[in-house]
Amino acid sequence: MTTFAAPHLDTGDTAWLLAATALVLLMTPGLALFYGGMVRTKSVLNMLLMSFVAIALVTVVWLVAGYSLAFGDDTFAGLIGGLDHAGMAGIGPDSLTGTVPTLLFTTFQLTFAVITAALISGAIADRTRFAAWLVFVPVWTLLVYVPVAHWVWGPDGWIANALGALDFAGGLVVEIASGASGLALCLVLGPRIGFKKEAMRPHNLPMVLMGAGLLWFGWLGFNGGSALGANGLAAASLLNTLVAGCTGLLGWLFVEQRRDGHPTTFGAASGAVAGLVAITPSCGVVGLVGAAVIGLAAGVVCSYAVAWKFRLGYDDSLDVVGVHLVGGVVGTLLIGLFATATMTAGGQEGLFYGGGPGQLGKQAVAVVAVAAYTFTVTYGIGKAVDRLMGFRASAEDEVTGLDQTQHAESAYDHGVLAGPVGTASVKASATKGSPAA
User: Fold this and answer.
1) CA angle at residue 434 from 432 to 437, to 5 degrees?
2) For the chain, N or C: smaller number of CB within 10 Å?
3) Contacts of 415 (CB under 8 A, 6+ apart)
4) Is the full-model pTM beyond 0.90?
């Protein structure tokens, strides 16, 4: 995230951030479609709703206490903010953060928290009790997302200030945090019934591509908006984001062609997302060449990383670990190689630009710290929820499908009447022109 200018309202900056905020909010419905197309038919609605309900849950938590703890004045050694702004106390329409209204900055940051929580759902698809998810999301937001956001983006956060690591738009806060948390919940819930024995293919690839397209579109606001102004840094971040998504897509397809003999639409969507994940921390600190290399590296590395779950035995249903954790690590570490003083606010430079290995070491420390903290705390939250109410759906519910057992709905109505009504009755109803027809 960019540093703040002296407070004064700039209408151009405000207009851009208003648009960027809307773009980032759209990413969560886009993620819902992306994930929804990847699961089997019997759990589509459950997958969609896990993303949509995160919007509501995180919004409440963020406005009650999350924003104040993440972006309030530091209260203890760069680890957490205070509660001076709990319930948005003391923040009105005229309050400014840099050159934009504080209420707008708050909302922009809220959309980041929302999609980070929603991302985790992909790791535990097809087997999660919805009621447990409703409990997990607000607790996780307060205990995991909020502290990490303060470390990296808070006014006195230790990762940004004491350590000096860089994370422009969320490689640590969003990608590594969601990926490590997803891994923790995979281990808490255990694998799906039939994991490594049954094919669990995406049921709707056009939906996956549509979701990926909406994510890519929203990511331009995600990264470009993190400049917090309508300026050259926003333009460079936006272009870097576009380029990395392209090279990530091409890298993944190259691996598929070489390894499997054919590129796939699923691979194209996954590769684009991998490139976008990796450029998130670095889009505002590297040049165009660095962005292209980072996206390509993520596309190649993540295309292999998604298969790790079969070797190691953790069931990361929709590859949150393989894409978001691994892609986030790739993008965050490569800042240490490609950062350039022409982009960084503090003049930091990576190893390839004459800066030496120091920045790479700082990035590595930040990666380990965030991954270890988020994994450990999420695992503890998951275990607590599991003991309190049961986190995993029953075997019967999982086999039947979560749409029916958790929500009493079906995503696709094929016109077949449920219950004991026979074929003859259906034909008779259709002949009479009844609503059953």
Assistant:
1) 95
2) C
3) none
4) yes
